[in-house]
Inverse folding.
């Protein structure tokens, strides 16, 4: 029997192959740790330096379809391990980053420990024609990436579709606002009925806003008082302040102004305010129900074109203005704004020149000097500044040349009051003020009276035959949408969607007209298609954008309910024309007491 022998080289090659296929556990863990570390290099933008080319690749263009090995980043992976570990440790707690190639969000890993390999899930990467490390590093350090002139001189940058973002501190993002429809044909009606002044705003003969002065009550919103702190409640984080108007007003901790932070934190209200202390505060909300007026120490003085924010660095322009007009007003404001006060440009400043803004600012500065001097002398509580009458206040805040066609009034005293005010701030608008002539009263001539009656009803009909039902509770306002007489033609989804779209536009008008604030829950009719739900939400958002009162709209929940919040300033239209029933106390039922 002849023994078969093999060359020595073949045996060595076999042993060499066997060594790779049957690796020891220590070798496996070392390889896994190397792969994990180099995965961190890929996931963490800016953590690695430039990638060295693999052996044999110098001077050759990489193949575009060749796949990169999981651990293959050239020969620089092993030498950069210590630097990567240090940088990964320093970035713990940073927000998730996006990879430059896949666009997926990658969480920054925790500090890598020995013998604990990290295996993040990553989509397979394909070799690009350039290294992404240079672009990522420039993005992290803030350096501008230099765009190569030719492909031979430098490597091309990574694709700019989704690049690695810089690690920044958390910042509040402002939600995109819906486009504001510019209506240039509004009419303002001002009338005096008994002891009440009523102001109606019409858009295409449709009543959209209504203001009224309640008998025996005048709004306190905007008034500035020198109040005396009665007591401070740390558990409520609020203070009750006597402003000389009966019920004490409430000042919450978030509205308190202080000079500086304590140890980098906002000081508690009991450390800033004490009982018996005199403070200057402004009313932001009238007393409603059993609640007192709301106060703030962030004082603001509204003018015709500007709002002065004393002792602040606030600088802003109304977002309802076009971008071109905002840029023009921004250039003017940089020249006239005072160094020690903040300034906000109002919507009424559209078309105003530098002289108009400067004159308005000077009036506000003089007014503030009077308020500051008055606060230093005299006893508290007392009023330091009062907002003008309702008619002047509405004309100041709303009446602009770009939106209103005219003002009509049937009262001679109100006519003289508005003309005198406009002559001092906007003489070019005086010709738009007219006296009413005709046999019928002003509101009946423009069909406003019947629209007010409909706005006071519980049920509101839609053009297609559907209707809304509005119910107000202590906590919120609930609006129900029904198809009613609308039966549609094609299918149920189309019928329901059309009814909901009409309801969205009408709900926005009713909220403005009735001045409903707080939490509003809308029960739209159930829709199956997501695109129809999105269409209804977008319609409501666009309609609410015309409202100058701040609001927020949420998505439709799993129960088909949509939540809306709207700033509550006054009691509302219904409370202005009604009184609580003394028999049922507003419940709407009578108990028989027969159990």
């Amino acid at each position: 029997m002849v023994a078969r022998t093999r060359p020595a080289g073949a045996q060595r090659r076999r042993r060499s192959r066997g060594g790779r296929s049957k690796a020891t556990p220590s070798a496996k863990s070392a390889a896994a740790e190397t792969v994990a570390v180099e995965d961190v290099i890929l996931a963490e933008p800016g953590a690695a330096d430039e990638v060295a080319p693999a052996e044999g690749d110098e001077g050759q263009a990489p193949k575009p379809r060749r796949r990169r090995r999981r651990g293959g980043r050239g020969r620089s992976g092993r030498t950069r391990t210590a630097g990567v570990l240090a940088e990964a440790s320093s970035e713990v707690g940073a927000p998730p980053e996006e990879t430059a190639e896949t666009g997926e969000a990658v969480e920054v890993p925790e500090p890598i420990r020995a013998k604990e390999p990290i295996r993040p899930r990553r989509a397979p990467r394909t070799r690009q024609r350039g290294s992404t490390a240079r672009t990522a590093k420039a993005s992290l350090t803030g350096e501008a990436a230099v765009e190569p002139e030719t492909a031979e001189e430098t490597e091309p940058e990574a694709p700019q579709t989704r690049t690695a973002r810089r690690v920044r501190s958390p910042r509040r993002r402002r939600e995109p606002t819906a486009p504001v429809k510019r209506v240039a044909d509004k009419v303002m009606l001002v009338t005096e009925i008994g002891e009440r002044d009523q102001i109606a705003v019409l858009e295409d003969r449709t009543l959209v806003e209504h203001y009224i002065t309640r008998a025996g009550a005048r709004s306190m919103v905007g008034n500035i008082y020198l109040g005396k702190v009665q007591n401070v409640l740390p558990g409520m984080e609020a203070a009750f302040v006597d402003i000389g108007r009966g019920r004490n007003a409430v000042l919450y901790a978030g509205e308190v102004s202080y000079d500086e932070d304590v140890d980098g934190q906002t000081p508690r209200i009991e450390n800033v305010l004490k009982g018996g202390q005199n403070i200057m505060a402004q009313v932001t909300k009238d007393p409603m129900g059993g609640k007192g007026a709301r106060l703030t120490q962030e004082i603001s003085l509204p003018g015709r074109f500007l709002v002065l924010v004393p002792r602040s660095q606030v600088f802003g322009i109304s977002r309802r203005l076009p971008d071109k007009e905002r840029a023009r007003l921004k250039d003017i404001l940089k020249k006239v704004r005072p160094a020690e006060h903040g300034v906000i440009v109002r919507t009424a400043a559209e078309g105003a020149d530098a002289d108009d803004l400067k004159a308005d600012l000077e009036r506000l500065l003089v007014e503030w000097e009077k308020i500051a001097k008055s606060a230093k002398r005299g006893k508290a509580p007392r009023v330091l500044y009062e907002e003008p009458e309702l008619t002047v206040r509405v004309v100041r805040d709303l009446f602009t040349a770009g939106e209103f066609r005219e003002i009509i009034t049937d009262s001679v005293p109100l006519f003289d009051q508005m003309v005198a005010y406009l002559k001092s701030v906007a003489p070019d608008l005086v010709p738009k003020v007219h006296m009413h002539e005709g046999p019928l009263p002003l509101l009946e001539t423009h069909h406003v009276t019947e629209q007010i009656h409909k706005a006071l009803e519980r049920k509101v009909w839609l053009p297609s035959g559907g209707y809304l039902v509005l119910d107000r509770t202590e906590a919120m306002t609930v609006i129900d949408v029904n198809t009613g007489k609308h039966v549609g033609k094609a299918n149920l989804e189309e019928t329901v969607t059309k009814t909901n779209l009409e309801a969205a536009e009408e709900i926005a008008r009713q909220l403005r007209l009735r001045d409903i604030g707080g939490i509003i829950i809308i029960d739209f009719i159930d829709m199956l298609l997501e695109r129809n739900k999105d269409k209804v939400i977008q319609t409501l958002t666009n309609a609410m954008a015309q409202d100058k009162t701040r609001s927020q709209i949420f998505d439709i929940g799993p129960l088909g309910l949509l939540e809306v919040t709207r700033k509550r300033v006054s009691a509302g239209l219904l409370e202005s024309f009604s009184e609580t029933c003394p028999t049922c106390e507003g419940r709407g039922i009578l108990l028989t007491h027969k159990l």
User: Anything to note?
Assistant: Confidence is low (pLDDT under 50) at residues 7-64, 68-120, 122-174. The chain has 15 helices and 23 strands. The first strand starts at residue 97 and ends at 98. The radius of gyration is 34 Å.
